[in-house]
Amino acid sequence: MIENNNEMLPFENYPDQGRMLIGRVRGSNCRHGYGLEFMQLTKQTTCAYCGTDLATTYESWLTMALDHVVPRDTCVRLQVCEEWYEDYSNRVLSCTACNTFGNRYQPEQFECPSTLEAFYHWRDSVFIARRKNILEKHKEERAYFDQKLWIMTAS
Ligand SMILES: [Zn+2]
Questions:
Q1: How far apart are CA 48 and CA 44, in angstroms?
Q2: pLDDT tens-place string over residues 14-39
Q3: Cα(132) to centroid of ligand 1, in Å?
Q4: In which domain, by residue range, is 121 found?
Q5: Is 76 helix (H, G, I), strand (E, B) or coil?
Q6: Would residue 5 count as lying in a domain?
Q7: Cα(12) to centroid of ligand 1, in Å?
Q8: Which of 45, 102, 103, 123 gives 20 to 30 Å between its CA and that of 74?
Q9: Rounded to two decimals, what is the model's pTM?
Q10: CA of 48 to the centre of ligand 1 (A)
Q11: Model pLDDT, residue 155
Q12: pLDDT value of position 53
């Protein structure tokens, strides 16, 4: 399920290959509201980081989140146009685990991109860095899981 397909970006399947504004994210309900709208707009159903399909089972659907690629606080700090960073084109589908693993990532960027095209270029590189980071954390977490610490050995 987790693969290192570093060549493919999810944005390629978005309207206009994810290089145009496609709509502002609104509301507060992911599964019934903005997440659903995002899936309809972009045809995405899998976590952009680990590849888990979030639409095949009820249990996986419950873990659906819509992640900012370039984090909101970074954009606010650099005074990036809100219309850009709150657009669906700056979002990816994410499972809860990847969303949590990626939470603390702070991109290295010291000035606001001057054009939307430059913003998307930045978004792409942030996505690639975050995916690498998140997949590393999955490796660590899986190693921990594989210890099966909940199985008590008889003493
Ligand atoms: Zn995931």
A1: 8
A2: 999 999 999 999 999 999 999 999 99
A3: 12
A4: 10-145
A5: helix
A6: no
A7: 19
A8: 45
A9: 0.90
A10: 7
A11: 65
A12: 97
If you measure from the C-alpha of residue 63 to the centroid of ligand 1, how many angstroms do you get, rounded to a whole number? Answer: 9
CA of 47 to the centre of ligand 1 (A): 5
Q: How remote is the CA of residue 150 from the centroid of ligand 1, in Å?
A: 23
* C-alpha of residue 114 to centroid of ligand 1, in Å: 31
CA of 50 to the centre of ligand 1 (A): 4
Cα 142 from Cα 155, distance rounded (Å): 26
Contacts of 140 (CB under 8 A, 6+ apart): none
Q: Are 50 and 97 in contact (CB under 8 A)?
A: yes
125 within a domain of the structure (yes/no): yes
Distance 154 CA to ligand 1 centre (A): 35
Tell me how far apart the alpha carbons of residues 99 and 72 are, in angstroms, rounded to a whole number: 14
Residue type, 59: E
Q: How many domains does the chain have?
A: 1
Residue 4 lies in a domain: no
Tens digits of residue pLDDT in 63-110:
999 999 999 999 999 999 999 999 999 999 999 999 999 888 888 777
In whole angstroms, how far apart are CA 85 and each of 20, 67, 74? 12, 11, 10
The string of pLDDT tens digits covering residues 41-70 is: 999 999 999 999 999 999 999 999 999 999
